[in-house]
Amino acid sequence: PYWxxxxxxxxxxxxxxxxxxxAGIGMHVxxxxxxxxxxxxxxxxxxxxxxxxxxxxNFFSASDKFxxxxxxxxIQKIKQDGGYYFDLCxxxxxxxxxxxxxSGWNHWLVCATPWSCVIS
Length: 120
Fold this sequence. Notes:
Layout: E1 16-20, E2 31-32, E3 35-36, E4 39-45, E5 48-53, H1 72-80, E6 84-88, E7 97-101, E8 106-111, E9 115-119
């Protein structure tokens, strides 16, 4: 697409991530070989809560816990900053679904089911 930075390589699928309920790694930006990169995550099973925030809009601290039940004020703050809060899971027919995280975007995913499996 026109908005994709073709100069930055996207790492290919090389990870299988199996998580149990509540597992996550905190808000972060993906870096590959010292460069911020676009990455993608394909949900195979289970459900993940997701927060995406544009570059330089991360207002969470490293000690924050994922807001599983966000307040209306938090949702409004995420929206005002151009971000998103949503759930990621396979489609109703079981087909996997892929999420692209643009280069520099902060993202935080937490397993919301007894277990989940994604590839990245």
